[in-house]
Amino acid sequence: MSVRPVLRIGHPLLLQAAQAVAQFSTPSLHALVEDLFDTMQAADGAGLAATQIGVMQRVVVFGFEHNARYPDRDAVPITVLINPEIQVLDDTLEEDWEGCLSVPDMRGLVARPPRIRYRGFDAEGGIVEREVEGFHARLVQHECDHLDGILYPQRITDMRQFGFEEELFDEPPEAEDAC
Ligand code: NI
């Protein structure tokens, strides 16, 4: 379908909560999902929320295949997740660097629970339910935050751990981390 412009931090829609999807399997929902994947892939991102393209519905897409350049990183299945709910399974916190297509070229250290169960629907209304950990768990929490109008810089506790990638790291981080 089409690659849509990604809203950047400062745009008021990124701070608003999205509405639950009421009807599945509609042409407009399928078109939205297709645009989200096209936009995510064009930007080399690992995930994208509908709010990031200014559509205020509770729809996120994420996932990537195993990448030969980054063999240590496990693949995350290509997923559409609608009206998601997250249950934290381990409420200790783990820190890792995050990036966001709406906060380009920057990274911040964010603490999140490392293990979650998430549940939601695909575009046909089928149930999607998984227990995940590590980067997969972080990615889903980051995307679901977008649906509540939360950007990762709001979750940084030590603002000294926030900045431009090029200043923070000797080696550029994985492009596909951004979501
Ligand atoms: Ni993001």
Count every beta strand, where a strand is a DSSP E run of 2 or more residues.
8
What's the average pLDDT? 94
**CATH level-3 fold name:** Peptide Deformylase
Count, helices: 3
Measured on Cα atoms, how large is the radius of gyration?
A: 15 Å
How far the N terminus sits from the C terminus, by CA atoms, comes to 20 Å
CATH superfamily: Peptide deformylase
Report the biggest beta sheet as strand number plus sense, adding barrel if it closes.
5 strands, antiparallel
Strand residue percentage: 25-35%
- Secondary-structure class: alpha+beta
The CATH architecture name reads Alpha-Beta Complex
Under CATH at level 1, the class stands as Alpha Beta
Instruction: Provide the low-confidence segments as ranges.
Output: none
Side-by-side strand order of the widest sheet: 1-2-3-6-7
Write a structural description.
The longest helix is centred in the first third of the chain and has 16 residues, at 27-42. The protein has a single domain (12-169), classed as Peptide Deformylase (Alpha-Beta Complex), CATH 3.90.45. Helices cover 19% and strands 32% of the residues. The mean pLDDT is 94. The chain is globular, with a radius of gyration of 15 Å. The protein is of the alpha+beta class and 179 residues long. The protein binds nickel (II) ion. The site of nickel (II) ion (NI) has 6 residues, from helix 2.
